[in-house]
Specification:
The complex is a heterodimer.
Chain A lengths: L4 H19 L6 H13 L9 H4 L16 H19 L12 H20 L3 H10 L3 H26 L1
Chain B lengths: L2 E5 L7 H12 L5 E6 L2 H14 L2 E8 L2 E7 L1
Parallel strand pairs in B: 1-2
Antiparallel strand pairs in B: 2-4, 3-4
Helix pairs in contact in B: 1-2
The chains are: A mainly alpha, B alpha+beta.
Amino acid sequence: MDIPYWGGAILLGMLNIGLFYWSGKPWGITTALAYWGAEGLKFFGFEPETWLFFRDNRLLSQSPGGYDPLFYGTLLNIGVFLGAFMGSVVHKEFRIRWPRRKKQYLAALLGGLLMGYGARLAGGCSVGALVGGTASFSLHGWLFGLVLIPGAWLGFKLSQKLFYS
Amino acid sequence: MAEFYLDLVGYVCPVPLMETKKKFQELAAGDVLVIETEHPRAVRNIMDWAWNEGTDVDVDETANGRWKIVLKK
């Protein structure tokens, strides 16, 4: 059961259309992650419900409004994990992989933090802002894509210098 | 005709392709380079690069999610 890359792209596009029809917003990933982080911060006494970022819906790409950590984005992300897991199992590619050098853990942590922070500033990641934005003819998606290219190049050069040389 | 080996397990893109290119340059005609990787994307990368260069490439999945790539200069 092999689906070519373009078949997967069409499938993702159709699923995104379905999601857009059902929820009124295109697919996104990082909004839910922000809620996961905010829920974690509650254990340390923070009150993210009161933060402007969560109160003002316009700043978020997906949330239906107000502080709502249980909104459907969390379910979508679990679906991404399960789908990727099932795909790798079906193709017999599943394997627990460990980074070669200790430095790579730091690189992954720092990269994740920067990407997560950037996605919140940009109102979405490469899925929510780029795919959702360009597909809905929003200028912000194209801007995101344009800036993504020098950003990726810079990140590549920096990580080469800092972590792999 | 010598055989060279590159262990690239534990590295992700773009490191495997870059290391492969670097090592391949040092080879003489007829030499063979054997690479091991666990990164699916790197397998694709290295195959694409080899096809573009017209290099002989042979890929073998030695275990679930682990590949041995043989390149011939």
